[in-house]
């Protein structure tokens, strides 16, 4: 495989992977943020008592 | 001519106000230093990945990666390949990060006190804070150039724009710490990922992959594809990059803090595994923008010919004179398409000439090319992106930038306050005192960065400067931590020697006149850092044996 062919493959695979994982983060991240807030709220309540 | 219009200003302002508002919402959850620095260790894998990646991607990242792509062509991609390999390895094996996470430290130097001594912690913290601040210190001035070009803000107001960005990051970081960072980073990541894809697709659409490869083939004289054969990259550079990235992925404070903030060691490994694919994009995509800019402007260039009866030496001297007087104003106007062939011709003429002044002229020509390489990408973006799209891109870029400032403010101020100031105090601080101290150091750090970015001139490509300032402490930090975890005889004297020798060799690149190449300085830092640790430990062992892993 030539260097040019290798870098072409690397570039397009990178672009596709970047887009897919970013979409995954956008979707799954919301639940994780909610969970973090729940835990921080619980921790705050314990501290305030 | 930029297409940045009213709609773009509205999109940009909304993204900044939204970020600030979200950042401030989280302040009610911060009561202890552990909430502030590691978000009570409650971070999940996807949000953690967003936080890590958005911290490590700023406008500065796009600028220096694009500059490197412009200068080295596709050979620059090797850095992305190294990055994914190292990050994936760290994610899969948990190398160093698992042990540090299990020990529940909050900063990297904290481990050094547990394993070596308090003085090692303070010295390491000081070197890290200095290196980290020097690294961060050039961000505003380079990012300001991007903003001036893409938005058309007059140069005299751009410093105020940068000050506003720093202030936004300062306010929500100082108040909300890591909790605020994690939440804002999530939103910022979504914006920056969208902006990155938009610019990449627009660049591909405007320039075309075929034009990019043809342009590198035609104008780089056979260079630009094989990283092992290119002088700017080469085997020594590749070796240094591998070592440096192992350190960046394990003990770079802002990356390590994400590991410390994760729910558990398994989550932190998953963060690094996911991040590896995004870090490939962090390198390859903006490098491709740089190559697209290279092809875009060469596509508009006209041949530079000698005047009637002009010898090659006369031609070289004339070009040198013309560029000495006209380079800066022409670059400010975006005349990249006419500057590029003139600089290229000057480089060729000075390389072939045997007259004594050829060498300094060649050095000046190299400097001009680096300057053009730095701003070519934003000039291309300003030209090809239409109104509306440029605003979305800017929202993404500013989100990237603010998240980077916020992440680095917290990272370096945590080290300054927790590892340098607190250990030197005679009595322990209360929780409120620790929080106050960290907030004060964030403010001081912001002031330093504003001043440093105005007074310092970066030697050579920004990519190299940033990596050398990181290397100042990365080599000795990783060496002393790995030795501390896996070699029972590693001693405090060895750690001191490792930090001093490792830092000195990196400084060799930054001191004008020494002319040390970036790869030599980088690799020397690793060799001397390791030699210092081994020699110091064998000759001056610690009196009492220390615990190795906890």
Give a brief rundown of this model.
Chain A is mainly α and 49 residues long.
Any overview of this molecule?
The complex is a heterodimer of chains A (49) and B (550). Chain A is mainly alpha-helical. Chain A is built from 1 helix and no strands. Chain A has one helix at residues 3-48. The radius of gyration of chain A is 21 Å and the shape is rod-shaped. The mean pLDDT of chain A is 88. Chain B is an all-alpha fold and 550 residues long. Helix content of chain B is 79%, strand content 0%. Chain B is built from 22 helices and no strands. Chain B has helices spanning 6-25, 33-38, 45-56, 59-72, 77-93, 97-102, 108-115, 118-137, 139-151, 155-207, 209-219, 234-250, 253-261, 265-298, 312-332, 336-352, 358-384, 389-424, 431-455, 462-486, 492-510, 518-539. The N and C termini of chain B lie far apart (59 Å). The mean pLDDT of chain B is 86. The A-B interface holds A 2-4, 7-8, 10-11, 14-15, 17-19, 21-22, 24-26, 28-29, 32-33, 35-37, 39-41, 43-44, 47 and B 28-29, 31-32, 35, 39-40, 42-47, 49-50, 74, 77, 80-81, 179, 182-183, 186, 189-190, 193-194, 196-197, 200, 209, 213, 225-226, 274, 277-278, 280-281, 284-285, 288.
């Amino acid at each position: 495989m030539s260097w040019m062919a290798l870098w072409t493959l690397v570039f397009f695979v990178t672009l596709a992977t970047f887009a897919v994982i970013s979409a995954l983060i956008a979707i799954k991240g919301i639940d994780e943020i909610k969970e973090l807030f729940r835990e921080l709220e619980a921790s705050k309540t314990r501290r305030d008592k | 001519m930029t297409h940045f219009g009213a709609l773009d200003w509205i999109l940009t302002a909304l993204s900044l106000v939204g970020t600030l508002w979200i950042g401030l919402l989280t302040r009610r959850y911060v009561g202890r230093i552990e909430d502030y620095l590691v978000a009570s260790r409650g971070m999940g894998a996807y949000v953690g990945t967003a936080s890590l990646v958005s911290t490590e991607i700023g406008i500065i990242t796009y600028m220096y990666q694009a500059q490197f792509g412009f200068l080295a062509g596709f050979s620059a991609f090797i850095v992305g390949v190294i990055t994914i390999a190292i990050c994936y390895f760290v994610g899969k094996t948990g190398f160093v990060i698992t042990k540090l996470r299990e020990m529940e430290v909050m900063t990297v130097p904290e481990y050094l006190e547990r394993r070596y001594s308090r003085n090692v912690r303070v010295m390491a913290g000081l070197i890290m804070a200095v290196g980290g601040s020097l690294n961060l210190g050039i961000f505003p001035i380079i990012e300001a150039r991007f903003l001036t070009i893409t938005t058309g803000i007059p140069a005299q107001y751009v410093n105020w724009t940068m000050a506003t960005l720093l202030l936004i990051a300062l306010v929500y970081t100082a108040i909300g710490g890591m909790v605020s960072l994690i939440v804002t980073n999530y939103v910022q990541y979504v914006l920056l990922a969208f902006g990155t894809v938009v610019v990449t697709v627009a660049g591909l659409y405007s320039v075309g992959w075929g034009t990019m490869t043809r342009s590198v083939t035609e104008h780089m004289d056979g260079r630009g594809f094989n990283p092992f054969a290119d002088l700017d990259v080469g085997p020594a550079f590749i070796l240094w990059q591998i070592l440096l990235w192992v350190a960046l992925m394990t003990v770079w404070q802002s990356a390590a803090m994400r590991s410390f903030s994760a729910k558990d060691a398994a989550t932190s490994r998953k963060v690094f595994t996911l991040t590896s694919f995004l870090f490939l994009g962090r390198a390859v995509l903006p490098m491709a923008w740089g190559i697209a800019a290279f092809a875009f402007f060469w596509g508009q260039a006209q041949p530079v010919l000698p005047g009637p009866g002009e010898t090659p030496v006369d031609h070289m001297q004339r070009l040198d004179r013309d560029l000495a007087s006209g380079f800066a104003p022409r670059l400010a106007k975006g005349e990249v398409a006419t500057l590029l062939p003139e600089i290229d011709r000057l480089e060729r003429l000075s390389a072939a000439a045997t007259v004594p002044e050829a060498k300094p002229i060649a050095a000046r020509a190299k400097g001009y090319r680096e300057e053009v390489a730095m701003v070519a990408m934003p000039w291309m973006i300003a030209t090809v992106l239409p109104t509306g799209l440029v605003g979305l891109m800017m929202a993404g870029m500013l989100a990237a930038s603010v998240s980077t400032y916020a992440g680095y403010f917290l990272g370096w101020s945590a080290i300054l306050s927790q590892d340098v100031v607190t250990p030197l105090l005679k009595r322990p601080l209360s929780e409120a005192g620790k929080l106050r101290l960290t907030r004060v150091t964030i403010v001081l750090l912001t002031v330093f960065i504003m001043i440093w970015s105005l007074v310092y001139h970066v030697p050579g490509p920004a990519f190299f400067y940033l990596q050398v300032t990181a290397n100042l402490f990365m080599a000795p930090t990783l060496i002393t931590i790995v030795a501390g975890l896996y070699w029972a005889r590693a001693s405090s004297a060895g750690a001191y020697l490792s930090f001093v020798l490792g830092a000195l060799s990196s400084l060799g690149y930054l001191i004008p006149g020494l002319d040390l190449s970036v790869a030599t300085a980088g690799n020397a830092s690793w060799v001397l850092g390791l030699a210092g640790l081994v020699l110091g430990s064998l000759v001056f062992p610690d009196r009492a044996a220390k615990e190795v892993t906890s």
